[in-house]
Description:
The structure holds two protein chains of two kinds. Chain A is of the alpha+beta class. Chain A is 24% helix and 34% strand. In chain A, the strands form three sheets. In chain A, strands 8, 9, 10, 11, 12, 16, 17 and 18 form an eight-stranded mixed β-sheet that branches. In chain A, a hairpin with a 2-residue loop joins strand 11 (127-137) and strand 12 (140-145). In chain A, helix 2 (114-122) crosses helix 6 (256-267). In chain B, the strands form three sheets. Chain B has a four-stranded parallel β-sheet, with helices on both faces. In chain B, strands 3-4 form a two-stranded antiparallel sheet. In chain B, strands 6-7 form a two-stranded antiparallel sheet. Chain B is 43% helix and 11% strand. The relative contact order of chain B is 0.19. The interface between A and B is medium-sized, with 38 and 32 residues.
Amino acid sequence: VAVVTTGAVPPGTRVSTGSVPRALEGVVQRSACTETDGDALLLRLPHVGRLLARHGDEVTIDAPDAHPDAVRRYLHGPIAAALHQQRGHIVLRGAALSDGRRTIVLVGRAGAAVPPVAISLLRTGWRLVAAEPCAIDGVRVVGGSSRLGLWPDDAARLQLEASQLAPRQPDSPILDFDVAETSSSSPDVRHIVVLCRGLHSSDVEVQHPAGADRFLAITPVTHRDLAQGEPWLGSVSTMLDRVEVTTLRWPGGLELNEVVRLVRETIA
Amino acid sequence: VSGSLVWLASYPKSGNTWVRAIVTAYRTDAPVDLAALDSDAVLGREDVDVLAGIDTADLPPTVQVSLIPCIYRAHAARLAGVTWAKTHECRTVGGQPLHPADVTHGAVYIVRDPRDVAVSYADHLRISLDAAISRLNDPDLVVAHAGPRWNPQRPQPVGRWSDHVTGWVDSDLAPVVVRYEDLIADTQRAATSVLATSWVEVDAGRLARPVAAAGFDALAAAEEAHGFHERPPGVDRFFRSGRAGAWREHLTPTQARRIVDDHGAVMERFGYDTADD
């Protein structure tokens, strides 16, 4: 048993190896790789094994033949996200950055280019507070990774040195850029920017959703593995009352520096 | 057969989209909307991630392929009724079926002369004919494979043309096999056998209108007017020719012979003339 004190997994979490059941009883939500009984989250992965997160501070790993880097990827990804949710935190798919006065969270689904945009902002004085999975309690960032995952073409575009990058896990196409220094205490979150890559559009769309549309804007970029009901809605509602939300849809063919320019205009 | 998915399987550029248009036109009895064709392919990364419950783009390719049957099961579990599912994937990888029998309602396999497939594929991917011919004989061919950049689709193992055809046609799913050339020659008759895999009884009197609505000229006109989101960037037309035997105008005798050398046995099984002109 090891007690985790760093990384995306919430502090104080006990991680151990042992037998994990193939299925949970009383499943309320199931996907191809996960199932939950409303509290615990079971993660099942071919070629890797099974991981179980429960009580917000307990992880059991049953993956005797898996590469340690593969286990680490899931521990610091979906398992960390589940643990934060079990603690009542909102977990966003994105990266939180601070300029010392305020914290913004760039969020987006796969392909939205959050990590390269975040790295571009880091080069202009912003500090990384937390990368995916980015956990928020109220309007405070309370957890997340220090690693931003990049596709090789984005890493090349950003002219990152090979020594700064490491494969996320064996055979993974994604390269992790580890931001060694993260901002340990950050101001409150003031702004959530939802990035969307528009696959079939040629126009830039910037929207400032209001009311229920704010929920709709951030729901697809929020981890909701445990099928939370009213408590989750209450937490999100509290957060949304205090932050600005902007959605920025950019055409798929747009150059990265143009996307960065749009984001900078949005958060100015 | 007790599941809800009807597989609409084919090698790429073999008429799959045309059949989807016919199926859609029959169901809606309206002009074809290319943006709303029946048969959710469960290919988009966002859909896949929701069904998987985790982000999948950074998984090693072997894990992503292993997840395909699980993704289809999760997809089927959310369906209310019988639904078409387009696929260009080969039937098995490493001996493991990608399309679970337990969620299968039926299957249709469309086979097309590989010489015409090569011509269409070269145009679709903007590659040379020789490169397209090589792809048709590549046992490791994967569409939308994990390369150096983000891909909006999940990887789809396809493999060699011959293996693709026999893998499906001889599989436990016992698909209704339709030749592209027969679809052209007698669309109504071929469409009847296709539709019968999902609807118990096909109303032959209702077929003429959807067959016309999904005719090649109608689809090409719809693409011209409204575009088609499945057309690759930089390609002028998705619905390009829609003819059988067009390879004679495009392939050199050497190229045509190369395809016959690679796939002659399976071509002959499906009635394609392999003799040199």
